[in-house]
Amino acid sequence: MATSSLEQKLSRLQAKLNQERRHPAPRIPLPLDKPDTSPMGASRPSRRAASLTLHRPLSGPEGKDKQDKDEGLFTLSLPRRGKEEPPQPPIRQRQCLALLPHPTCPAPRSLESLELDAKLQEVMRQTGYLTLDGKKYRVAFSDLETLGEMGSGSCGQVWRMRFPPTQQLLAVKQMRRSGNREENKRILMDLDVVLKSHDCPYIVRSFGSFITGTDVFIVMELMDSCAEKLKKRIRGPIPERILGKMAVAILHALHYLKERHGVIHRDVKPSNFLLDSLGRVKLCDFGISGRLVDSRARTRGAGCAAYMAPERIDPPDPSRPDYDIRADVWSLGISMVELATGEFPYLGCHTDFEVLTRVLQEEPPALPLSLPCSPDFRSFVSDCLIKDHRKRPKYQKLLEHNFIRHYEEANVDVGAWYREVVATTELRCAVLEPHLASKTLLKCSLSVNQRLLNIY
């Protein structure tokens, strides 16, 4: 009976994970020569791009640049460019729904619904502004220059953009608004956390946001890559000294979220560890983060099965989840093993069900004895991957670990290592794909120069 019950729990969890992946952000095929008939305004002539018709979701005021002396705001208006531009983030057309009669006795709204509305109103008050280098600008989304798409996932797309008045490069995350309550909760949570975490150097910084009837755009600092992509580039282990600095940054970010905002991340994994060519390491993606009640999470929140802690997979009462920040400690430990070895610890699994079963039934992963690493690193990973969550250390105790203390003080040039990795891997593939190699190397070089200009 116990085995049957466990299989039922794993099947339910796998079904939830599959449901999250079932509806990825759709790519919208748009004709190149039809006029824009979106509800944002009158019909405009189209502008040719590689594969998308450009839309301008927000319209900026026309006229000369002017400064509001009372509020310290800069109102910008940029002329439209006459040359061809890269594809802009598409805006979906919105269906107009007939108004329904108001019920005489409206149904009472839940506390969660009221909190979501309050959070949305708070975010709406900040939309249309960018804060860069201590100056607050009033900006139309059309003022940003699109340089291309950086990537996409189940939550939306990320675009590389430039703010022409300062020439600053930005990453803009585009997420679709919909009638799905869970999707809207994820968008609001992502926005809420990143906008409030401006004072943490280990969390990707937001400069502002734009909200339209169909999309939400979060404007963030541009990072060069993530730990997951670097692992694939290297095709092998990442050095301990780099992982030491990475662990310090991620642990401080998680501790900050818990202590300052009462939030648990719940999606700690290498693809959410961002790095740049200056050596900075930051945590991102807060869509499935959860609020802590009495330091414990009360909602399930699926996340990624591969990094999920045992107590989240098989809780005592699935209808009433009850776990804490130590679930993210487990995820950090799995990430460290993967990056230190260059391989995911549960190899050979073809489904989430297989991974979840092995997490529950097998001993926790560990750094192989053949791997050259320090005893402190082995001890840190072992502490993170204690299977009984009641014995697993929390953030504060881990911050006092010798491994973390050592790499907080150690002088490690992560930026130099990153640039060397990019140059080496580009040289390796130059023979096979020289045009791709040169483009990537040029992009990295431009990124470094841009950041150095921003600093000096």
Automatic annotation (TrEMBL):
Q: Which reaction does it catalyse?
A: L-tyrosyl-[protein] + ATP = O-phospho-L-tyrosyl-[protein] + ADP + H(+); L-threonyl-[protein] + ATP = O-phospho-L-threonyl-[protein] + ADP + H(+); L-seryl-[protein] + ATP = O-phospho-L-seryl-[protein] + ADP + H(+)
Tell me which species this is from. Eptatretus burgeri
Q: What class of enzyme is it?
A: transferase
Q: Does the keyword ATP-binding apply?
A: yes
Task: Tell me which CDD domains the record gives.
Answer: PKc_MKK7 (cd06618)
Q: Which SUPFAM superfamilies does the protein's record reference?
A: Protein kinase-like (PK-like)
**Does ATP-binding count among this protein's keywords?**
yes
Instruction: Write out the biased-composition intervals (Basic and acidic residues).
Output: 62-71
* GO cellular component assignments: cytoplasm; nucleus
> What cofactors are annotated for this protein?
Mg(2+)
Query: PANTHER family under this entry?
Result: DUAL SPECIFICITY MITOGEN-ACTIVATED PROTEIN KINASE KINASE HEMIPTEROUS, MITOGEN-ACTIVATED PROTEIN KINASE KINASE 5
Q: Where on the tree of life does the source sit, at the highest rank?
A: Eukaryota
Known SMART domains for this protein?
Answer: S_TKc
For the biological process aspect of GO, one term held by this record is:
positive regulation of MAPK cascade
Where does the record place it?
Cytoplasm; Nucleus
Name-wise, this protein is Dual specificity mitogen-activated protein kinase kinase 7
**Region annotation Disordered: where it falls in the sequence:** 1-71
Keywords from UniProt, A to Z, are:
Acetylation, Apoptosis, ATP-binding, Coiled coil, Cytoplasm, Kinase, Magnesium, Metal-binding, Nucleotide-binding, Nucleus, Phosphoprotein, Serine/threonine-protein kinase, Stress response, Transferase, Tyrosine-protein kinase
EC number(s)? 2.7.12.2
Name the protein family: Belongs to the protein kinase superfamily. STE Ser/Thr protein kinase family. MAP kinase kinase subfamily.
One family name in Pfam for this protein: Pkinase
Cite the InterPro entries for this sequence: Dual_spec_MAPK_kinase (IPR052468), Kinase-like_dom_sf (IPR011009), Prot_kinase_dom (IPR000719), Ser/Thr_kinase_AS (IPR008271)
> One GO MF term, please?
magnesium ion binding
> Residues in domain Protein kinase?
144-404
